[in-house]
Amino acid sequence: MDDLLTVTVAKKLLEKGTISSETLVSMCLERIKAQDEKTHAFLGLSQTAIEEARAIDVRRKAGDELGPLAGIPVAMKDNMLVQGWESTAGALILEGHKGAYNATVTQRLKDAGAILIGRTNMDDAAMGSSTETSHWGPTKNPWDTTKVPGGSSGGSAAAVAAGFVPVAFGSDTGGSIRQPASLCGVVGLKPTYGRVSRYGLIALSSSLDQIGLFAHTVEDASLMLQVIEGKDPHDATSVDLTQTTVPELIEKDVSGLRLGLPKEYFLEGMDPQVKKTVLEAVERLEKAGAKIEEISLPHAEYALATYYIIQPAEASSNLGRFDGLRYGYHSSGQNLKETYERTRGEGFGREVKRRIMLGSYTLSAGYYDAYYRKALKVRSLIKKDFDDALKIVDAIVTPTSPSVAWGLGEKFNDPLTMYLSDIYTITANLATIPAMSIPCGFVDDLPVGLQIMGKPFDEYTLFKIGATYQSLTDWHLRTPS
Ligand code: GLN
Questions:
Q1: Number of domains in the chain
Q2: What is the DSSP letter of 144?
Q3: pLDDT given for residue 4 in this prediction
Q4: How far apart are CA 225 and CA 245, in angstroms?
Q5: Neighbour count for residue 382 (Cβ, 10 Å)
Q6: DSSP type of residue 192
Q7: Pick from 301, 281, 309: which is nearest to 423 by CA?
Q8: Which of 157, 296, 348, 398 could form a disulfide with 180, with the two C-beta atoms 3.0–4.6 Å apart?
Q9: What is the mean pLDDT of residues 207-229?
Q10: Catalytic residue among 152, 205, 401, 421
Q11: For 138-162, how does the pLDDT look when each residue is reduced to its tens digit (9 = 90+)?
Q12: 72 CA to middle of ligand 1, Å?
């Protein structure tokens, strides 16, 4: 079989009967067991996956009508609930916590026939950009195991890059899908806020979180989105969609499309080789007929500061529920207050505590107006920058990350440098627009990602640009040795 197993390829093999789902799922599990020691993409594997795959095979043989993902193995980030599975969000505070129900995305995948084969590693409570803050130890980049895979969904990105699964799911609050996708050389899609239900996702920052996925191809990404998207009565922010994308109907043609290149995104601080690689990708799109226009996003320089006020504020509130009394980590004290102090003091990691302190500070009386309320106003200005720009252009193209994957431990003790690695991704969350990273080359044998951002609910244009690019290049077909 081809080294690069995409969902589209696997679907065809399954439908033709060339391979059974049982064989496919067993192959994935064996590969993980043999090789994941080096990457640590997975925190746990399903005990029932082979049985479920066998059941699909039986139904296929009987001629039953099957869902669009029947028999396809997928992986879930450790913060998305799967009923009965442990779900820790990479955090000690949720040690032993089990999903009491299926997240909407989990349920939709199961209904489509997908086989959930395991849960992937992530930064502690999804805070981080390298998967090094995971309480369960870091994930390593399959391209070079001395490097980080990015984060916070580093386990899912590494799982796809290493060929353990054709597709994996993740969440993106400030770049946690796109940045690891870029660093691991796979496609990473963060849909528009509201396109995919967040029900059953362990909340980090409720106005920024969005579930999305990792795949090798844009076609696969669109197929997955079709399965998980749409209104859900359990999430009031989910939206009734009037349109979806049919993967086979994505036009591989960008002629006449106007692509904006924001001048604020190519300044000093970024790796010149990454800049060159990204600009070459943009040139490729121009040669294919796209019109490249320089645009300005004047408030971009405030994005990081805005994000690091809003995100910790919402996180400090969301994390208030982890008291160790009903589930997760528990450490008893002499009285209730001491029990809380011990449980939370021991259960939360260093980065999480830093954010809780930042968030509690900016939300407290006397500072609320100066920080939190002001950050909300700046967020509106950032959103308006994008609204204005996307009236002139059809999509915006930028680097996904200012650098390629860095060494494990290199930025671990320097939170500001770590925060800066999300400089190009956080704006899409603040502006609630869709964004996708696709592989566009290598620097020092490590993958580089091109980010494409679009109008709210216009994922189709992102797919069109991405699929055209992938039809002209083969970066996405390369795999780590
Ligand atoms: N790295 C960013 C942070 O630590 C984004 C995390 C995310 O998207 N979950 O906040």
A1: 1
A2: B
A3: 85
A4: 8
A5: 21
A6: P
A7: 301
A8: 157
A9: 98
A10: 152
A11: 999 999 999 999 999 999 999 999 9
A12: 29
pTM of structure = 0.98
Strand partners, 258: 291
Cα dihedral across residues 476, 477, 478, 481: positive or negative = positive
Q: Which residues contact 47 (CB under 8 A, 6 or more apart)?
A: none
Please pick, among 176, 205, 222, 421, the residue that the annotation labels catalytic. 176
pLDDT digits (tens, 9 = 90+) for 37-64: 999 999 999 999 999 999 999 999 999 9
Which CATH number do you get for residue 198? 3.90.1300.10
| Residues contacting 145, CB < 8 A, separation 6+ | 38, 39
Between vectors from CA 412 to CA 402 and to CA 87, what angle results, nearest 5°?
95
What is the tens place of the pLDDT at every residue in 457-478?
999 999 999 999 999 999 999 9
Average pLDDT, the chain: 97
The verdict on the CB of residue 311 being under 6 Å from ligand 1 is: yes
- pLDDT class of 3 with cuts at 50, 70, 90: low
Band (pLDDT 50/70/90 cuts) for residue 2 is very low
Is 437's pLDDT higher than 90?
yes
List, in sequence order, every residue forming a beta bridge with 54; answer none if it has no partner.
none
* Overall average pLDDT of the 212-240 stretch: 98
Map residue 269 onto helix, strand or coil.
coil
Among 253, 198, 184, 250, residue whose Cα is nearest residue 221: 250
* Measured distance CA(77)–CA(85) in Å, rounded: 12
Q: Which residue has the tokens 């939370």?
A: 344
- In our burial notation (b when 16+ CB lie closer than 10 A, e otherwise), range 84-122 reads ebebbbbbbbbbebebeebbbbbbbbbebbbbbbbbbbb
Distance, first Cα to last Cα, the chain: 16
Cα–Cα dist 187/437, whole Å? 6
Query: What distance separates the 2 farthest-apart alpha carbons in the chain?
Result: 70
Catalytic site includes residue 130: no
* Assigned token pair, 399: 């680097």
The rounded distance, in Å, linking the Cα atoms of 299 and 303 is 7
Domain that holds residue 294: 1-481
Q: Is 439 in the pocket of ligand 1 (CB under 6 A)?
A: no
Name the residue of 148, 173, 304, 319 to mutate for ligand 1: max ligand atoms within 8 A of Cβ.
173
Does the Cβ of 126 fall within 6 Å of ligand 1?
A: yes
The three-class DSSP label of residue 475 is helix
State both tokens at 44.
């746990």
The C-alpha atoms of residue 225 and residue 395 are separated, in whole angstroms, by 19
Q: What average pLDDT score do residues 277-295 get?
A: 98
What the block records as the tokens of 391 is 């009236």
Residue carrying structure tokens 């955090």: 91
Helix (H) or strand (E) holding 448: strand 446-454
Torsion angle of alpha carbons 414, 416, 421, 422, nearest 10°?
A: 140
